[in-house]
């Protein structure tokens, strides 16, 4: 399930301060689904308030589909969506364009868990010496 780069802006389009201010009123109304998964990815969908779509700049939209483009992380964070690092916007639910679909690679999650456990060891940690 690869991301089609033609469905994104060529590079992240940052919001102007005035654009961001228009979206502030909606941030507390963004709904995050429970997570669900398969053997490769963890998924969740994020439901934006329908009225919020009217305040998002036009160049965030795919005119041919009438939905938001696939957003870079900088773009969806600028809209007020908050998630941990590693989530990727991979699809928009076209019948309900205010619903954005995200995925998170399970291998990324396992790597982060291993790294986190390594950093939790005491600074004076010495591995066991084989006998």
UniProtKB/TrEMBL annotation:
Sorted UniProt keywords: Cell cycle, Cell division
Keyword Zinc listed: no
Gene3D superfamilies according to UniProt: Cyclin-dependent kinase, regulatory subunit
Listed SUPFAM superfamilies: Cell cycle regulatory proteins
Source species, domain of life: Eukaryota
InterPro entries found in the cross-reference section: Cyclin-dep_kinase_reg-sub, Cyclin-dep_kinase_reg-sub_sf
Family matches, as Pfam families: CKS
Main function: Binds to the catalytic subunit of the cyclin dependent kinases and is essential for their biological function.
Family that this chain belongs to: Belongs to the CKS family.
PANTHER family: CYCLIN-DEPENDENT KINASES REGULATORY SUBUNIT/60S RIBOSOME SUBUNIT BIOGENESIS PROTEIN NIP7
Name this polypeptide is given: Cyclin-dependent kinases regulatory subunit
Organism from which the protein derives: Aspergillus pseudoustus
Lineage: Eukaryota, Fungi, Dikarya, Ascomycota, Pezizomycotina
């Amino acid at each position: 399930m690869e991301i089609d780069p033609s469905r994104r802006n060529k590079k992240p389009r940052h919001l102007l301060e005035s654009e961001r201010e228009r979206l502030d009123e909606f941030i507390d109304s963004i709904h995050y689904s429970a997570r669900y998964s398969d053997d490769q990815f963890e998924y969740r969908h994020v439901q934006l308030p329908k009225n919020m779509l009217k305040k998002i700049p036009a160049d965030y939209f795919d005119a041919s589909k009438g939905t938001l483009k696939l957003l870079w992380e900088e773009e969806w964070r600028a809209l007020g969506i908050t998630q941990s690092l590693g989530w990727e916007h991979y699809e928009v639910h076209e019948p309900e364009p205010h619903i954005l679909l995200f995925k998170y690679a399970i291998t990324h999650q396992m790597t982060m868990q291993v790294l986190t456990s390594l950093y939790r060891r005491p600074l004076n940690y010495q591995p066991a010496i084989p006998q």
